[in-house]
Specification:
Layout (H helix, E strand, L loop, with lengths): L1 H23 L1 H18 L8 H24 L3 H23 L6 H23 L7 H27 L1
Length: 165
């Protein structure tokens, strides 16, 4: 459908931009991640002591994965898988922004935007992941095939019973 061919690249554009930003300028992302990890460690004691180099590598890998998934979505290759990957990659960003939001002292509208954007994009990615292009889901197709086989077997048994009598 033409709408999907236009909407997917438009939707993927934010993910591509964020992923490239994480690859090229990871320091701002590292600061956000460090704040989130510190808050998480204070809430749930876990040995999450990552040095700056390791955290920067993780941020860059996350950015690269985001760009790859968004690229697949933009060109229409494995869009459901790409949408699911983008949802999984974006949800931690919303959690990190939530952790930063409690310490950030900026305007309330800006803080709300920083929190709601990744949540909204996670939801959009989930919708993309669930889009079957109007075709039945894999589960329905499997159940339908099983029902057709069962009906065919029952019809064959009825035919054999008729011929026996």
């Amino acid at each position: 459908m033409l709408l999907r061919r236009i909407a997917r690249p438009l939707f993927a554009s934010w993910f591509v931009a964020e992923g490239i930003d994480a690859l090229r300028h990871p320091q701002a992302h590292v600061t956000t991640a460090r704040t989130a990890l510190t808050r998480l460690d204070a809430t749930v004691p876990a040995d999450l002591d990552l040095d700056e180099r390791t955290l920067t590598t993780v941020i860059r890998a996350h950015g690269a994965a985001t760009v790859a998934a968004a690229g697949l979505l933009a060109v229409g290759k494995a869009p459901r898988l790409a949408g699911a990957a983008l949802a999984l990659l974006t949800f931690p960003l919303a959690l990190a922004e939530l952790a930063v939001d409690k310490q950030h002292r900026g305007p309330k509208a800006e803080r709300r935007q920083r929190l709601l954007r990744p949540l909204a994009l996670t939801g959009g990615a989930l919708i993309v992941a669930a889009d079957t292009h109007g075709r039945p889901s894999v589960r329905w197709r499997v159940e339908h095939a099983q029902a057709v086989r069962a009906a065919a077997a029952k019809a064959e048994q009825a035919r054999e019973a008729l011929h026996r009598d």
